[in-house]
Amino acid sequence: MRTVLLGAPGSGKGTQGELLSQKYGIPQISTGDLLRAAVAAGSELGKQAKAAMDAGKLVSDEIVIGIIRERLTQPDAAKGYILDGFPRNLAQAQALDEMLAALEQPLQAVILLDVDFEVLMKRLTGRRTCQVCGAIYNIYFSPPQEDQRCDKCGSDQLIQRSDDNEETIANRLQVYQSQTAPLVDYYEAQGKLHKVNGTDEVTEVAKHIGQILETAM
Ligand code: AP5
Hints:
By secondary structure, this protein is α/β, with parallel strands linked by helices. It contains nine helices and eight strands. Helix 2 (31-41) packs across helix 3. The longest helix is centred in the C-terminal third of the chain and has 15 residues, at 166-180. The structure holds BIS(adenosine)-5'-pentaphosphate. Residues 127-163 form the Adenylate kinase active site lid domain. ATP binds at residues 10-15, 127, 136-137, 200. Monomer.
């Protein structure tokens, strides 16, 4: 199964990607997570990416396409994957199509998580992520059962992402509108786009995506 999760910041790509990864036993490949890991490790790539991420802009195509090219050749991606946050503009989408054509493994489905912009700001400012296991919470919609403690691994390291402040979120949403939203037409023209109401409950969204993927495969 080769799937792309498309959607604005806060639309639920990470949340749904994690559920799909568990359900189908294939990796969730998030360029955001890979870039944050590079920043945390202080690598040269991380240093190059940090300024753009802090500003809510896109990291250069050269860097992210390179990351994806390398990641897709890892053994765990052989049976399929869920791409979360890639592609994010036309150049990345075309590069991905070329990569997959060379492997004779085209994308099977692109899921668009559709959420109104007013909801996104609250979702993003309220997001907390477990620094140990990556579990995602929201202080407004889905808080952990015990205050400041991860339900899954018990860690007390629930952090707010540095780009989840109102100013950077506004930039990220604007970048989504101008650079990523045109991919909706791109994938619709390929007959691969499936739109899902991302404002439903997490379990409902997951159910809907599952139904789409069962018929698309
Ligand atoms: P990235 O990490 O990809 O961030 P993003 O696209 O802005 O998306 P988010 O992770 O913020 O949101 P999400 O859709 O995953 O939502 P989530 O499930 O967490 O990218 C970060 C940065 O890296 C970019 O700005 C850029 O600089 C760089 N970058 C990454 N990829 C790049 C690329 N390809 N090219 C260039 N640069 C790149 O949910 C959000 C919140 O909502 C959570 O609190 C969650 O609990 C809650 N929630 C989720 N679903 C629901 C629901 N159904 N109901 C109620 N609450 C919900």
